[in-house]
Prior knowledge:
Layout: H1 2-13, H2 39-49, E1 53-59, E2 62-69, E3 76-80, H3 91-97, E4 102-106, H4 124-138, E5 145-149, H5 151-162, E6 169-173, H6 185-188, H7 203-211, H8 220-232, H9 234-248, H10 253-260, E7 267-272, H11 281-289, E8 297-299, H12 306-309, H13 311-323
Parallel strand pairs: 3-4, 3-5, 5-6, 6-7, 7-8
Antiparallel strand pairs: 1-2, 2-4
Amino acid sequence: xxxxxxTLCLSAMLLWTGVTAVSLSVLPRxxxxxxxxxxQNILQQERTWAGLHTKKLKVxxxxxxxxxxxxxxxxTLLLIHGLSGTRDNWNRMARYLTPYYxxxxxxxxxxxxxxxxxxFDLSIPNLTEKIRRFVEAGQFDxxxxxxxxxxxxxxxxxxxxxxxxxxxxxxxxxxxGVFKSANTPYLKDPALxxxxxxxxxxxxxxxxHLATASAPFIPNEIKVEQEKMMISQSKNTQKxxxxxxxxxxxxxxxxxxxxxxxxxxxxxxIWGKQDKIINVEVAQExxxxxxxxxxxxxxxxxxHMPILEAEQLTVQPYLEFLKTK
Length: 325
């Protein structure tokens, strides 16, 4: 009964402070002639470099697009991106994971290339339930480890709480939630998240500077195409922000804490110390809520996007963590 209550609490309460996980993926840090390649070719080259292949899977009314790499005989890592991001946010990390693990990275509904019906329910509980159906249909639950960045961390936490027997570990990177120690504007007033939606030319540059401690170089040809893609998805992104704002008005840090304490799988927390969207104090608060969490790893000079700003500093402790699971 205690497990059932905790699970229901989490599915109702968890983490309604979503944040933007802007897709900044570019090719490995080598020179290339950007004008000679279109945006999709560049992304495909990056996936190949990371040992990933693009696949599709229809489950009920969702046609999932996802990246998959590594041997399916090995433990599975399910990596979940954040609000307005895509599976390609994880490519730099995946390069170091596919030699040792079976890596699966879906585009969330209304993100990237995953397609859903009109008026799809974009609430975190529904997204989590749909991820579970995706895992079952793809038979990806072999020794499953789950990781989430930003809003993807909210989904990963909820998934872990609802399916603890099938989840071997949890990785949270600058994760969304409802926190007491929130000192950033976007946690104090989630309505400000509306300002982060990429809806017009120029918004992408603003978001890069907000989401990273030191904005990475992105060739202009790539940046223009990335911005166009995000503008085309802005209507659905706005719908997700509306859901997050609505729920943040309903639930409190205390109810979040009560729910999060039901999670007892081994947990690793990684945070950028210069995160301007979800302040670094949250990492220690999260650690105190979980029954089996290691001390948080805080990355100096890194903002909200460790998976892109400092992928090696992020993946190395994760690999060490996974060795013991």
